[in-house]
Write a sequence for this structure.
């Protein structure tokens, strides 16, 4: 079947099977390799993309459900988004495999909650696992990004 | 912004693609132990390439320490998940569908799923006979015990333990167990193989490119220089991406197909690929009334699963790590690496030390309690210092246990109050013997190119190498280029394991830069550490470089439910000189967090050889919310000191500090992981010990205790054939 959606701002049309997950389509057909398969059951968050500004585990999200949606991956952030900058400055990654999913989750979280408490940050990261165990620096990166107050300055 | 990890531009092995590439899928035995009578792939469509046992019978066996594995389980499947056939198809979906069209006839055999049972009378043999070793990863003599499931036996004989125990005023004895664990790197195993004019090229996430190349040369009976291994950066490895995993299968499929073939494992398959060794350790430890250790006896039963992999090395390291960093006049260790019908167990961050330190450091606190002594004092009194000899006979140098112990004790407020607190000190060896080599080229534009085999799996090794090279060459790090490793362009290195790269490759780099300065255009450097242990006596040099660390924890327990919270966790790891500060911090923090998982909830469960929690929902790994609120660490540095490897040291002490913190409250947990249920059972046992009285309460405890006893092994038999 044919699917139409916007990916990182660009109107896109792809062919997909009705029972395929969005992850497959993003990686294979659109070459968006920052979206990564890990657990396959929506637990770990490595396959996170923003679908209409909601962090979604694309490994369990049927591709046809994205019809007409706006999809954002880390490729769409350009590289100098404040959350990306905060990750780099805090060295909040080791292997980098979970990092794009983390960044998208945090981006959305901070837009909804620009001044989070430590506890709120830990809860917000519950759906993004990092086996390298970079959580201390990831939490620091969230705080750093929040401290830049980029959200209020953008609005 | 250029960091490819932050922009998502980094490419892992799973991202490698070629024109006309096929996708592989593997048919695995559903039975943990079965004879394979017939494999019928006639229903598979012609568009799909099939690999069956008949295709691999002419190929060599492989195995990094013992050559006990064939490319496919040809006649006998030895674990539930053993590859029996494989296919390559134009799409992943077609490959998965083709697998279902292969018909296999099995004859089920009795299996054995516990290392202690596997050495008892009448246990089924996982392998009918033992195999040879000829990979350079087999760095010591194997001691397989014929007619048993023991593929290696390691011993330490130092002094006379029986005589030693006669002079001990206090003796404790306990049996500890640790569960199997999954590395669970976020990126699953992925490999792509292609043949170019008789030459095999493989892109694969591997920490061991040269060991892998050597085993593949043996499988295909071609010279090593006809094989090229290229490891892209890995999305985590932790020991899982070592030696031959699926590279041989994709290489066979690619040869048959005449096209490149790729495999990416499903998460479930990770549990069927490589796990951490479950182990049982029995410790007997004696001291004089003043706390001076006199005698220690350790027995280890190390479950290596269906194939040895590097289990013999794990058993050996577990054996000497279980002695601990102490002066003990009499030591006897017997460590057995044992086949069972479980998926293979192999290298895992901590490499045998985790299991050993759990048993050894819990035993120290048991001894301290029996002596009525402060566990810190007991350690300070016995811990090795510069100039001491370890039980292997080797002279200790650059030793920092006392300062690390004092640092953690201070941080946790040990002197104020010891209730609910625990300590641990450990030493972990580095791969000995080994060799690292590196080449540095001066380019015409004033930049430098550094070539070495050190693999990047997230540990930051490439950044560390670049920083070290820049410092030695006196240029900005941006002027140092570091091409990704490729066996065609990098000189030999033993492997990227055992936290050895910054230290060993760093020393080789010093030589290479010195050579470059003399010769002008090209410098070559090598660092060799010689040594090794006699497997029959444990005498020799276990490690030329010791990873040294300590940790401390504080817990709060809900005695009604057994739930407990780690409220403080701190480690102090000897770092010497720090090269890459954020990288060093991340290694410590990451090791501690992985250690928390091991301590609290990570354990693979099997039912008759079938894994029952092989997914990231039933098998939990630590999330951000699992961090203790007070979570910190020290990198213990000394000016002018040597660089020390930091990749693993902070993992092994985490389970025992939590176990010892519980023990300070009378809660004696001996098995990992420490679930709330295990803690509640231990609380019940404490109540019974304290004679907390009558009635219903005791009945409830008794029935729970009875069930617990039934679940535990009633006895631990001697391994047959292990004498002499």
């Amino acid at each position: 079947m044919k699917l139409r959606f916007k990916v990182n701002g660009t109107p896109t049309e792809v062919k997909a099977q009705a029972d395929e997950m969005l992850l497959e389509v993003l990686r294979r057909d659109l070459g968006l390799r920052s979206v990564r398969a890990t657990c396959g059951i929506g637990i770990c968050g490595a396959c996170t993309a923003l679908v209409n500004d909601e962090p979604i585990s694309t490994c369990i999200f049927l591709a046809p459900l994205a019809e007409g949606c706006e999809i954002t991956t880390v490729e769409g952030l350009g590289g100098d988004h404040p959350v990306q900058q905060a990750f780099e400055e805090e060295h909040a990654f080791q292997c980098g495999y979970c990092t794009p999913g983390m960044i998208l989750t945090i981006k959305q979280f901070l837009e909804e909650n620009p001044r989070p408490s430590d506890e709120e940050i830990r809860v917000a990261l519950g759906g993004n696992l990092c086996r390298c165990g970079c959580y201390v620096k990831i939490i620091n990166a969230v705080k750093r990004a929040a401290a830049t107050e980029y959200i209020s300055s953008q609005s | 912004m250029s960091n490819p990890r932050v922009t998502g531009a980094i490419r892992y092995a799973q991202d490698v693609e070629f024109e006309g590439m096929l996708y592989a899928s593997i048919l695995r035995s559903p039975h943990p132990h079965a004879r394979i009578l017939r494999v019928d792939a006639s229903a598979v469509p012609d568009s799909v390439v099939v690999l069956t046992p008949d295709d691999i019978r002419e190929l060599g066996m492989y195995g990094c320490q013992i050559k006990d594995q064939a490319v496919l389980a040809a006649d006998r499947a030895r674990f539930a998940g053993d590859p029996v056939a494989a296919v390559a198809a134009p799409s992943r979906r077609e490959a998965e569908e083709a697998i279902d069209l292969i018909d296999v006839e099995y004859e089920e055999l009795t299996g054995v799923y516990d290392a202690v049972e596997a050495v008892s009378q009448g246990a089924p043999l996982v392998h009918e006979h033992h195999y040879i070793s000829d990979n350079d990863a087999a760095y010591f003599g194997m001691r397989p015990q014929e007619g048993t499931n023991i593929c290696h036996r390691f011993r330490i004989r130092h002094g006379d333990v029986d005589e030693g125990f006669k002079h001990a005023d206090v003796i404790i004895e306990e049996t500890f167990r640790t569960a199997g664990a999954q590395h669970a790197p976020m990126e699953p195993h992925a490999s792509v193989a292609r043949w170019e004019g008789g030459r095999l090229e493989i892109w694969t996430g591997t920490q061991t490119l040269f060991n892998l190349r050597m085993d593949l040369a043996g499988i295909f009976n071609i010279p090593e220089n006809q094989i090229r291994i290229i490891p892209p950066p890995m999305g985590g490895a932790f020991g899982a991406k070592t030696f031959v995993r699926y590279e041989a299968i994709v290489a066979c499929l690619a040869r048959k197909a005449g096209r490149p073939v790729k495999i990416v494992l499903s998460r479930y398959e990770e549990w069927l690929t490589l796990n951490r060794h479950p182990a049982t350790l029995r410790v007997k430890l004696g001291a004089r009334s003043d706390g001076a250790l006199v005698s220690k006896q350790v027995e280890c039963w190390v479950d290596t699963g269906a194939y040895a992999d590097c289990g013999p090395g794990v058993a050996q390291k577990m054996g000497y790590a279980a002695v601990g960093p102490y002066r003990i006049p009499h030591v006897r260790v017997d460590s057995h690496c044992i086949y069972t019908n479980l998926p293979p167990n192999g290298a895992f961050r901590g490499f045998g030390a985790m299991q050993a330190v759990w048993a050894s450091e819990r035993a120290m606190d048991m001894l301290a309690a029996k002596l009525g002594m402060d566990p810190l004092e007991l350690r300070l009194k016995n811990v090795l210092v510069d100039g001491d000899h370890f039980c292997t006979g080797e002279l200790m140098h650059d030793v920092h246990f006392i300062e690390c112990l004092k640092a953690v004790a201070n941080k946790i407020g040990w002197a104020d109050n010891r209730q609910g607190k625990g300590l641990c000190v450990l030493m972990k060896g580095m791969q000995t013997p080994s060799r690292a080599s590196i080449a540095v080229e001066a380019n015409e534009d004033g930049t430098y190119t550094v070539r070495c085999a050190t693999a990047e799996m997230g540990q930051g090794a490439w950044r560390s190498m670049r920083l070290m090279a820049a410092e030695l060459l006196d240029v900005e790090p941006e002027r140092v280029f570091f091409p990704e490793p490729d066996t065609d362009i990098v000189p030999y290195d033993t492997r990227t394991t055992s936290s050895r790269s910054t230290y060993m490759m760093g020393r080789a780099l010093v030589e290479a830069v010195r050579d470059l300065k003399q010769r002008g255009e090209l410098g070559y450097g090598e660092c060799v550490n010689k040594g090794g242990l006699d497997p029959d006596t444990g005498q020799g040099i276990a490690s030329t470089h010791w990873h040294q660390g300590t940790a401390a924890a504080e817990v709060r327990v809900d005695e009604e439910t057994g739930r407990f919270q780690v409220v403080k966790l701190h480690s102090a790891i000897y770092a010497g000189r720090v090269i890459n500060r954020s990288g060093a911090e991340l290694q410590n923090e990451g090791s501690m967090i992985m250690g928390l998982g091991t301590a609290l909830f990570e354990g693979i469960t099997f039912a008759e050889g079938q894994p029952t929690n092989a997914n990231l929902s039933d098998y939990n790994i630590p999330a951000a919310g699992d961090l203790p609120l007070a979570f910190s660490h020290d990198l213990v540095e000394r000016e002018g000191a040597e660089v020390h490897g930091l990749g693993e040291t902070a993992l092994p002490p985490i389970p025992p500090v939590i176990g010892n913190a519980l023990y300070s409250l009378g809660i004696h947990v001996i098995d990992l992981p420490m679930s709330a249920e295990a803690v509640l059972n231990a609380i019940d046992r404490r109540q019974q010990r304290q004679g907390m009285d009558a009635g219903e309460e005791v009945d409830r405890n008794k029935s729970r205790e009875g069930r617990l006893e039934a679940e535990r092994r009633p006895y631990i038999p001697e391994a047959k054939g292990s004498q002499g």
Summary: Chain B touches chain A through 52 residues (CB under 8 Å). The first helix of chain B runs from residue 4 to 7. Chain B has 18 helices and 27 strands.
